[in-house]
Amino acid sequence: MAAPLIAVVGPTAAGKSDLGLALARAHGGEIVSCDSLQVYRGLDIGSAKATAEERALVPHHLLDVAEPGDVFSAADYAGMARRAAREIAARGRPVLVVGGTGLYLRALLHGLFAGPGRDEALRRRLEALLDRFGEARLHRVLRRADPAAAARLDPKDRVRVVRALEVYFLTGRPLSQHHQSAPEPLTGFRVAVFVLDPGPEALRPRVEARTTRMFQEGLVDEVRGLLARGVSPLARPLSAIGYRQALGVAQGRLCLEDAIRETVTATMQYGKRQRTWFRHQSGGRWFSDPLPLSSEATAFLSS
Q1: Number of Cβ atoms within 10 Å of the Cβ of 26
Q2: Buried b (16+ CB within 10 A) or exposed e, 42-54
Q3: Contact 269/178 with Cβ under 8 angstroms?
Q4: DSSP 32-53
Q5: Per-residue pLDDT tens digits for 6-25
Q6: What are the extents of the domains in the chain?
Q7: Residue 256 φ then ψ, to 5°
Q8: CB-based burial, 244-255: b 16+ in 10 Å, e otherwise
Q9: What would the CATH number be for the domain defined by 120-180?
Q10: How many CA atoms lie within 13 A of 85 on its CB side?
Q11: Distance CA 3, CA 93 (A)
């Protein structure tokens, strides 16, 4: 019999982690994080990583599996997350995939195409365009070539924007189309995807409160600690929302109030991209309230 796997996904600050924890406790499940920042050691506050107390209540997987300077791809995530899911299922427990990184969810459930190798000459040209014209210009190029990829990628995510354009120019097809024809779906599980999205108006005060709390709890000191450990300020995780603003404070380029305001704005913009991705890619059922979602998830696990 296929093992149950529930994905609880949606925009940042929607309440996914609390709901996932409650479901896992109620049904004896284990959680597989679906978050592109939580994989990194030392990025705890800004990624809203599960606390030691929460991990003691429910086993969590795909946390702290890479160093901040490592190259960690969606394919790396898919391989590790599939192994974790199969190990959880072998213990007779339900799998709960919880997070907001849409590409990681797709990689786990549907696989990723192998893709062309790096083309160093093309990358140098794209990076030269970045240096000359800036991130917004290159993102506009991507929007014309691959609107779906542009909708989910932050213009400041230079690595992924360059890769998406590299795939497009090397293959003549958008990266999003390649993902849709991925050849290796996850097998052995019956899957339900639930999207938790309270909507932008309800989400904004939650984002504001969460952002203020992260900075109050020491996000800037966390970044200073990473730099003291030798993590480069150019490391990809430090360009993520919240971390790049905290880095600005640590380097004296931003005051705390501006960093909080910029983080809230960027998080809301990211939430819009997350909605676009999950609406077009997940095939999930949408809920604005966690209670009916919890009821549906319970019914699925009991069926």
Answers
A1: 12
A2: bbbbbbbbbeeeb
A3: no
A4: EE--TTTTBTT--TTTTPPPHH
A5: 999 999 999 999 999 999 99
A6: 3-112+182-302, 120-180
A7: -60, -40
A8: bbbbbbbeeebe
A9: 1.10.20.140
A10: 28
A11: 8
Sheet of strand 285-287, all strands in order from the earlier edge strand to the far edge: 60-61, 30-33, 95-99, 3-9, 189-196, 285-287
Q: What are 210-228's pLDDT values in tens digits?
A: 999 999 999 999 999 999 9
Which amino acid, one-letter code, is at 178? Answer: H
Both tokens assigned to 53? 């107390």
206, 198 Cβ separation under 8 angstroms: yes
The CATH superfamily of 3-112+182-302 is P-loop containing nucleotide triphosphate hydrolases (3.40.50.300)
